[in-house]
Amino acid sequence: MSEYLFDGPENAAARFILTHGAGSPMDSPLLTAVTRGLAESGFRVMRFEFPYMRARRRGERRPPDRQPILLSTWKDAIGSAGDRGRLVIGGHSMGGRMASMIADEMKVAGLCCISYPFHPPDSPEKTRTDHLRGLTTPALFIQGSRDPFGSPDEVSGYGLSSGIHVHWMEGADHSLKPLRKSGGTLQKNLEEVTLHLVAFARRLVRSA
């Protein structure tokens, strides 16, 4: 598989770079569905993988790379994308978290985090939010209300930057799957994610 996956029109008004969480690749069902929806809405989307995930494709058993490698890989991906004035970066879980740590430095137009891991599931005291208090890049966080990486009550007390909008999906977990008894489906949830990302990107384009 190529180092990068591209979808959507090359002359799009805005572009996304998305990447994966700790345990799933760039062509996971979640990222594939969101990418398809964004591309169908007229956006250009580039996906990439961190080195450890590329190694896993070769059959190697590798844990996630250390943070400096993850951040360097992100910067390389952004550097390959050209103009950053209408570029939105982000992804699922760890991928979005790493993007949030360099968004201001790289001067991108926007940040999108799907299921941001605010803390490890069993350690709510180990928050990953210090850099989010001073974030200046406009950001959309889409979270499930049942996500063990951060509940609505917990997140409301973190003092996040006013430039971060958090959209809560009722009953969804870290993978955005709904409660079975809710009558909802993962497909509908991912369609909702896409609609919010499209609206977010269009607002950025209008204000550019």
The second-level CATH architecture is 3-Layer(aba) Sandwich
Tell me the name of the CATH class: Alpha Beta
Which stretches are low in confidence, meaning pLDDT under 50 for 5 or more residues running? none
Helix content: 25-40%
Overall shape: globular
Structural class: alpha/beta
Q: Output the strand order for the largest sheet.
A: 1-3-2-4-5-6-7
Q: What's the end-to-end separation, in Å? A: 34 Å
What is the H level of CATH, i.e. the homologous superfamily? Alpha/Beta hydrolase fold, catalytic domain
Tell me how many strands there are: 7
Strand content: 15-25%
Total count of domains = 1
Give me the Rg, rounded.
Answer: 16 Å
Q: DSSP helix count?
A: 6
User: SSE order in H/E notation?
Assistant: EEHEHHEHEEHEH
CATH topology: Rossmann fold
Major beta-sheet overview: 7 strands, mixed
| Overall mean confidence score, pLDDT | 95
List its salient traits.
208 residues, alpha/beta, Rossmann fold, seven-stranded mixed β-sheet, 6 helices, globular
Structural notes for this entry:
The protein has 208 residues and is an alpha/beta fold. It has one domain: Alpha/Beta hydrolase fold, catalytic domain (Rossmann fold, 3-Layer(aba) Sandwich), CATH 3.40.50. The chain is built from six helices and seven strands; from the N terminus they run ββαβααβαββαβα. The chain has helices at residues 29-40, 51-57, 67-79, 94-106, 152-156, 186-207, and strands at residues 4-7, 15-19, 44-48, 87-92, 110-114, 139-144, 164-169. It starts with a strand and ends with a helix.
